[in-house]
Amino acid sequence: MFKRALAFIMLSLAVTAHAAPKIMLVMHGGAGTITKASMTPEKEKAYRETLELALKTGHAVLMKGGTSVDAVEAAIRVLEDSPLFNAGKGAVFTHEGKNELDASIMRGRDKAAGAVAGVTIIRNPISAARAVMEKSPHVLMIGKGAELFATKMGLEIVDPSYFWTEPRWKQLQQELIKEGSGDEKKHGTVGAVALDRNGDLAAGTSTGGMTNKLYGRVGDSPIIGAGTYADNATCAVSGTGHGEFFIRWTVASDIAALMRYKGMSVSEAANEVVMHKLVEVKGEGGVIALDAKGNFAMPFNSEGMYRGWIGEDGVAHVLIYRE
Ligand code: ASP
Question: What is the pLDDT of residues 73-93, one digit of tens each?
């Protein structure tokens, strides 16, 4: 009897030791003034369905044994292609009525990273960021150079008018009227963090930035350590919010640093930065953060944040408001 029990315990230990790490994908679709009152049921349904599609797309990649970088890229491309989110098609307009896009991606295994900023003709900036990471000796490329590089890498190039959408154009007109009122809440961004079967983390972020931004303004999204960070030893982070604060408070790497040097859990660290440090200085926004065991946090200090996660069971969870 005793021998049998012992054999059983040893067998279960062996199984646990060799079980492949659990996969996880967490996403955000931007934080800001998102309230139930400002939403119609149709709009809410569209947001939920698109987020679910993005989560399931990334999940399918991870289930097939794809890497966390593959999953982050695939999931973000879905949101970039949707006019609902401020990334790719659906990006907000600059003061001059242009769409200037930023994106970045980072791999937690070796801290490889790539980013593009101020690009206007690349359909999927997240793929351009990945190309910079994998096919160039650099981390960050901007404007015309980044566009030339993406073209040479065979990425899909579009006319700048591809990014024009009526709702975003109207938003700019409203902002132009309000200018000087100090109300700068028109933003959004999309992001993903993933954990794959090898136990590797990755993070990615893509955005049109903030409505009415000045020419050449670059936010936190393509800045490694500010809007995006990934390190297997701590966590993968993607942020959304008022980029100038995320850059100055090095939000993404600060969360990782709190875990590394203070021994905080991923939720303690993410909460400390978003709900304390940023709140103190009125830096609006939120993050998604995931550790290498699959624990994650999605704190935000704004009224809402489009967000969701999908794990091993393939059930997509989507949340929008404070709930
Ligand atoms: N963080 C982005 C930026 O400042 C915008 C956002 O996430 O809402 O460009």
Answer: 999 999 999 999 999 999 999
Phi and psi at residue 52, to the nearest 5°: -65, -40
Mean pLDDT of all residues in 91-98:
94
- Residue 21, pLDDT score: 78
Q: Name which residue sits closest to atom 4 of ligand 1, judged by CA.
A: 243
What's the domain count of the chain?
1
Q: Which domain holds residue 220?
A: 35-319
Q: State the closest ligand 1 atom to the C-alpha of 240, by its place in the atom list counted from 1.
A: 7
Residue 87 to residue 82: CA distance in whole angstroms: 8
Q: What is the pLDDT of residue 180?
A: 53
- Domain assignment present for residue 222? The answer is yes
Residues 6+ apart with CB under 8 A from 136: 114, 149
- DSSP-assigned letter for residue 300: B
pLDDT for 269-285, tens place per residue?
A: 999 999 999 999 999 99
**Would you say residue 19 lies in a domain?**
no
CATH number at residue 251: 3.60.20.30
d(CA 60, CA 79): 16
What is the arithmetic mean of pLDDT over 198-214? 97
- 137 found inside a domain: yes
Question: Looking at ligand 1, which residue's alpha carbon is closest to its atom 7?
Answer: 240
How much distance in Å is there from the Cα of 181 to the middle of ligand 1?
A: 19
